[in-house]
Each structure stands twice: as C-alpha cells, then as structure tokens.
Amino acid sequence: MSVVDTIKEQIENNTILLYMKGTPRFPQCGFSSRASEALVACGERFAFVNILEAPEIRAELPKYANWPTFPQLWVNGELVGGCDIICEMAESGELKELVSAAAKQQDSEEA
Amino acid sequence: MSVETEIKQRLSDGLELIEYRLENESHMHSGDRMDTHFKLVAVSSAFEGKRLVQRHQMIYGLLSDLMQNPIHALAMHLHTPAEWQESQGFVPASPNCMGGSKADKH
C-alpha cells in the first residue's frame, strides 16, 4: 500500500484523529502537547499517530493535506487544523461540539 | 533578505493587511538557528467568510517554499477586522519547546 493510501485509510477509519509529535501521554512538542490536551479535555475517545515514529507519513501528509506542519486534527475525514485552530476552537466551545457530535455519529453507526 | 522581511513582503503583497505582527520565537526552541519559529498576527478582510483552516492555508500558500525550511513552526492568529475589534487585540502566548526536534534533522 502506498503511503498516501495508508493516510487515506487512517483518516477514513478514524472519526477523530490527531497526527502529532509524541503521544498524548508523552508529547514531544509544545504545539502537539496543547492540541492533545485540548482534545483529551473534550472527553471522547480519539486516535493518534506519532509522526516522529512514522517518517513516511510525516513526509507525505503535509502535501496530501495542504498543511505543512504538525499537529493536525482530522474529524470526519476533514482537516480541522493545527494547534492554533484547535486551541481557539477549544476556547470557544466549538471543539467539544464538533468532537462530541462526531463521536455520537460514530457510535450510532457502530451500533 | 531575512526570513522576517521575506514573510512580511509576501503577506503584504498577497493580502490587504490591516494589522501585521510577526514575532520571532526561535529562542524558545531547541536548535541553533534563529529563524525557525514565528508567531504571526494578521488582520485582513480577505479572511471574511473563510473558515480558520482555510485562512491558515491561504498563509501557507503564500509561504509554501519557506515552510519546513527555514520555517519550522508558524503560530497564526488570523482575524477579520470585525473579529479583531471584538477580541480587543488579544493574542495567546505560544507554548514552550519540549525538545521533540532535538533528534530531528530539521
């Protein structure tokens, strides 16, 4: 499978997906740390990919996403944004709304 | 041309900027280079009707060949004139480095 196919599959199969440096428990970049904290605070389960351990994804995803940096939050197959956007949306309550709605939709599809 | 000057020139050519601030935050991060981390505040009516992700992509589009090298991180706070007035010019602080790129080639 090509790297782009792997990326597409990850984005398709994970309703809430964070590409980040490190893990939510051990983030290795301040921006990734803030983004994952904001997402954890929403209280829904989410998937993550540590791009420091996935050099091919790290190289390809920026081109595919038209977004050069990490973290990147994807919800329902769409790029939501990086750290600044995630934090701005967390502040306004929009992030929780988006993430909760996505999680609810996923649950009803799985049921 | 310094990276700061280059960024300013491209953004003022590409957008009608009402407010522009660029802060060099490279000293907050690991690595020797002093032109890697920036924080941008820009206010322009070009952002009207655009979602945040689209606004950021507009900026990335104008700076595309500078991203990754030399620019490693660009924090962005992009507002329409109306939003800027409402926020009264509040800009959040950027996070400190956690050393993730110490083992990095970038």
Written description of the protein model:
The complex is a heterodimer of chains A (111) and B (106). With 111 residues, chain A is α+β, with helices and mostly antiparallel strands. Chain A has a single domain, classed as Glutaredoxin. Chain A is built from 5 helices and 4 strands, in the order H-E-H-E-H-E-E-H-H. In chain A, strands 2-1-3-4 form a 4-stranded mixed beta sheet. Chain B has one domain: BolA-like (GMP Synthetase, Chain A, domain 3), CATH 3.30.300.90. Chain B contains 3 helices and 3 strands; from the N terminus they run αββαβα. Classes of the chains: A alpha+beta (111), B alpha+beta (106). At the A-B interface, helix 2, strand 4 and helix 4 of A face helix 2 and strand 3 of B.
Count of separate DSSP helical elements of chain B: 3
Instruction: Outline the low-pLDDT stretches of chain A.
Output: none
Give the low-pLDDT segments of chain B: none
- Beta content of chain B comes to 15-25%
Compute the average pLDDT of chain B.
89
State the helicity of chain A in percent bands.
Answer: 40-55%
- CATH homologous superfamily identity of chain B: BolA-like
Question: Keyphrases for this structure?
Answer:
heterodimer, A: 111 residues, alpha+beta, Glutaredoxin, 4-stranded mixed β-sheet, 5 helices, globular, B: 106 residues, GMP Synthetase, Chain A, domain 3, 3-stranded mixed β-sheet, 3 helices, 3 strands, 22% strand
How are the SSEs placed, and which strands pair?
The complex is a heterodimer of chains A (111) and B (106).
Chain A (H helix, E strand, L loop, with lengths): L2 H11 L2 E5 L9 H11 L6 E4 L4 H11 L6 E4 L2 E4 L1 H10 L1 H17 L1
Parallel strand pairs in A: 1-2
Antiparallel strand pairs in A: 1-3, 3-4
Chain B lengths: L2 H12 L2 E8 L12 E8 L7 H11 L10 E7 L1 H7 L19
Parallel strand pairs in B: 2-3
Antiparallel strand pairs in B: 1-2
